[in-house]
What we know:
The structure is a homodimer of 296-residue chains. Helices cover 16% and strands 38% of the residues of chain A. Chain A is an alpha+beta fold and 296 residues long. Chain A folds into 2 domains: 2-127, Acyl-CoA thioesterase, double hotdog domain (Porin, Beta Barrel); 147-292, Acyl-CoA thioesterase, double hotdog domain (Porin). In chain A, the strands form 2 sheets. In chain A, strands 1, 2, 5, 6, 7, 8, 10, 11, 12, 13, 14, 15 and 16 form a 13-stranded antiparallel β-sheet that branches. In chain A, helix 3 (50-64) packs antiparallel against helix 6 (215-221). The longest helix of chain A has 15 residues, at 50-64. The first copy, chain A, is globular. The interface between A and B is large, with 49 and 49 residues. Strand 14 (264-266) of chain A pairs antiparallel with strand 9 (135-137) of chain B.
Amino acid sequence: MPEAASAPTAPRGTIGDSEFDRDTALSLREPGVYDIDLSAGWTIISAVNGGYLLAVLGRALADALPHGDPFTISAHYLTASQPGPAVVRTDVVRTGRTLSTGQASLLQYDDQGKEIERIRVLASYGDLGTLPDDVRTTAKPPAIPPMDHCFGPETASDIRLPSGGPAPVDGSSAIADRLMLRLDPSTLGWALGQPSGKGEMRAWFGLADGRDPDPLSLLLAVDALPPTAFEIGISGWVPTVELTVHVRCRPAPGPLRVSITTRNLAGGFLEEDAEVWDSADRLVAQSRQLARVRLG
Amino acid sequence: MPEAASAPTAPRGTIGDSEFDRDTALSLREPGVYDIDLSAGWTIISAVNGGYLLAVLGRALADALPHGDPFTISAHYLTASQPGPAVVRTDVVRTGRTLSTGQASLLQYDDQGKEIERIRVLASYGDLGTLPDDVRTTAKPPAIPPMDHCFGPETASDIRLPSGGPAPVDGSSAIADRLMLRLDPSTLGWALGQPSGKGEMRAWFGLADGRDPDPLSLLLAVDALPPTAFEIGISGWVPTVELTVHVRCRPAPGPLRVSITTRNLAGGFLEEDAEVWDSADRLVAQSRQLARVRLG
């Protein structure tokens, strides 16, 4: 049903039939090799969002491996991706009973049609549905105010954006139209010209068309908030060097809460630790990235 | 000086001439391919320590890449390594001005001499010496009592080890002889049969022969303490699925402090977050691993 699937037949997106699903859909060229047209709908200014790209790679590996859920996926970002044609080449490293490991590369083409590698990932996949229900956690959900006390992209861009920096919540970023992002006002000092100095960013997160979260959309969620660097008072670009995500549980339907913390900015690099909580108060994903600070 | 280098000519190990250096030394078979005899000196019961293996892979990549320091290295552990012959195959993914990215595999041989992959890693390397000195951190060094108030392997194994579990601080583990490990008594309840229930493990860490830390030995330091699972009351084996280390600063001479935290044990998996601090109170490495809980 190619036509029906791409038409907005329902007011709500559903898993398998939403902007996110259409824009991460791959076509099989040959075993393990997939073509995709990277959507311009997930860009921040001109850069394609790293979380969207990770979801594309994660989806290719879910197809190539005998297990369907990313348990841990590590991505090293090599060169900046552009909207347009790309190819994903996967390699099955090992298949096991409960876990399988794979490798994937996202490549695009230069003027001569030569492949340029954008991202390389290693990942171990399993089946989240088979895990026992035991949970012993000391982690607590982030204290984010109710959604109607948080700021959407329109409101935040009305306030004031830091000069010189990218504006990930500004309407000029296509991704803002695809996300339901409501930022905790206590981590929004940067938008008022008064960054807190603390490396924290928190938000309610969903997809704008209402599609519920699944393990693949969690790969987007961990990298979709404004950089914590804004709250440290840095307004430049913060490109990701490496991002590893652990998916710990299949998320319940409904909005997610994402909390990102940076504790150490040193030597021009910083880490961003993200936690994603679902509507059932389960910690569904943890991630850490190493990013470079490019002063703007 | 092959003979002189392997003889204990000095009472103290030095960087380049210590047990750790000799046991991670690789011989070049052909460009990008290295042979090594994995030492039995870094085993816990019969398993080769994952941090030692990561240091072996990290050293191969330091040779294969134009940059010498691991900035971020992600390892997926596939099958259990054994002491004995192994080969490391490296692949240069991208070389850049400030960062280079490489891939490496550690392989051993089955009865028919066929290669079996043990670990695959992706890593981005740079030069820690060129980073600016700026540090803006909210992270604080862990509060570990002075070294003479902490417990060495001998003392800890005298107390009592949990039944059924591996005994990483017991004298039966060869690695105990190679490490200077002094465990914070407040995270040693498990050895007294009274685990705290908190997923915390802290220790002073060094190499037994007094060799000072460097970026490669940090890859060992993040995975050398008893598992946090012991303090949660789990005495089984906790094999690593994936381990990512960020080296943030070249460590100052002297002992390191290592603090490991587990916040979420769920569905039979847990994360271990490690921080490593040097004698100059700099946060020199951060790591996170996903590990499986195998009930003992």
